Amino acid sequence: MTNPAAPASPKPGLHPRNRHAHGYDFATLAAITPELARFIVTTPAGSPSIDFANPKAVKALNKALLEADYGVSGWDIPPGYLCPPIPGRADLLHHLADMLAEGNEGRIPTGERVRVLDIGVGANGVYPLIGHAEYGWRFVGVDTEQKSLDNVARIVAANEHLAGAIELRHQPVPDNIFVGVLRSGEKFDLTLCNPPFHASAADARFASERKQKNLGQTPGKGGSNFGGQDNELWYPGGERAFLTRLIEQSAGIPKRALWFSALISKAENLRHVEAALAKVKPTASRIIAMSQGQKQSRLAVWSFVGRAERQKWMLARWG
């Protein structure tokens, strides 16, 4: 389902199946999404780009990429909501697809038999939109904020091909990650999560203002280039606390998912994630290094399903 064509000079670090590993065709994108055209500028090197410090430009680029490369029409988010970079989100999904291929004779399972739980789907719904376009997987997107779910529902309703592909569920208890949203006997092949970065609203605000200064913006005005609401940006104790809770709660439902996973944005949290994993004793775990330009992150993947059980799981669910 991915495009195997590989122009020269790929961006360093992106997965080889990532559609964006070789830059953007701004002329084609602007033709598909005309509103992007007014944000395109010429760099000192003479190549087209956009001002990535401008949140409106970033949103227009996302809209164009989702329509041009993933067939999603009418994508939009409410003002101030998280507008994540598409290449990085696609990368995470390709790495998880590789995990599913391991032990499956190197074949990535595709189609609706593969079910994925997106914890914190947000208003953008990017993981399910990309994952279904690339691999045909079915998703359940969970969020603590109903407004976010309503926006993803609007996007799904505007695209007939997404009917039945993305289910949305509200989590009314923020400290519960799985309890309250999983149905009786329900199993997932993957769970994924992009945890909140910050430990408090004040920390999130400080980081946003610092980023705005670095981008040459006036702090406190206009928001950051990627935006974000409170529940998208911060959690008591920050990323470390959320990841620790996620790992602990995954151990309470060990056979409800083949692979659990979570993005680790802050390098200093890696050792805490490894310690939390050691405590719950998964049958397998891995840390996958990821990068997009200057941004470095890590993907933690773990399973409580033994190797022999994994073989049975794959045969039963994917044939």
UniProtKB/TrEMBL annotation:
Protein EC: 2.1.1.181
Keyword Transferase carried by entry: yes
Pfam families per record: Methyltransf_10
Reactions it catalyzes: adenosine(1618) in 23S rRNA + S-adenosyl-L-methionine = N(6)-methyladenosine(1618) in 23S rRNA + S-adenosyl-L-homocysteine + H(+)
Annotated localization: Cytoplasm
Entry keywords, A to Z: Cytoplasm, Hydrolase, Methyltransferase, rRNA processing, S-adenosyl-L-methionine, Transferase
Protein name, per record: Ribosomal RNA large subunit methyltransferase F
Organism the protein comes from: Azospira oryzae
Gene behind this protein: rlmF
